[in-house]
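pasting input
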Amino acid sequence: MSAKIQRLAEVDRIIHEPARLMVVALLAAVKEADFQYLHQSTRLTKGNLSVHLSKLEEAGYIAIEKTFRGKYPLTICRLTERGRGVLNNYRKIIKAAL
Amino acid sequence: MRNSSSLAGSADPNAIARRLMQRAHNRDGLPEIAVGLYFLLASALIYAQVVLPRQSIGFIAAVLTFSLLFPVVCIGSPWTLKWVRRRYLIERVGYVEYEPIGRRQIGFGIMLAVLVVLALFGVVPRLSQPDRWLLAGTGLFGGALMAWCGRLPRFVIGGVVMAATGVFVAFAGVSLQIGFTMLFGFQGLVTLVSGCVVFLRFIRQPIETGE
């Protein structure tokens, strides 16, 4: 039991932050989503969300593509394989410990 | 904006994603409007079968439309919702591409449908007053399904209203078809009004531009 709890120290700190966990969890459940959908779903402020997306992109957990749909600018976000692996690992550790 | 830590309280990423997506999916009220219209149409078609003379073109059309209504709505409504959102509401709801429906969900849906059919044809006809049980059972099952699928307070209230209406209609002493007309008609009206209120509130919110 104590070993499982000690494994909590191994959780990835980038996705352990609640706002980033929301973003990663959402992106794990969909193929792709744009900035506006993430903003509406998480109810984070745009500035806050933007910072968290940048951190996740820097870590290689999500891929961001900027495009247009007609006149509407789309910032499409997808979870990368690396991000999915880190999330699965996070899920295992948390489930085992709790 | 709310504190993000309260939303991620469960720490299970699957649960967090389900809750956020559920909320996002029902934010504009369009799914409720679609369900409300479906119930009202079903109610009107059942009532048409009561009042129109048998063998008339109207009666046959009502029977055929009613039998096709459920599969057409099941297949057509997700596509229609997606089209409406992308065509008219993309600046408000954003863009999302969902994963295709998984085998587990399809299997669960088939299992539920089989159970309903078994109950409908295997159990209900053997009961003393099958019409009453059918009306009450439809109300209770429909209400439970609505509350479970929606998982938001207004869907739970809608589910309770449907269950109560089903039980009330079952004991009102009306015929099966009139009972279904009342149950679906009332539920359709409640769901449609609720959806329209949510949609109007959603559409009146100012669009925030820029990232």
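fyi The radius of gyration of chain A is 15 Å.
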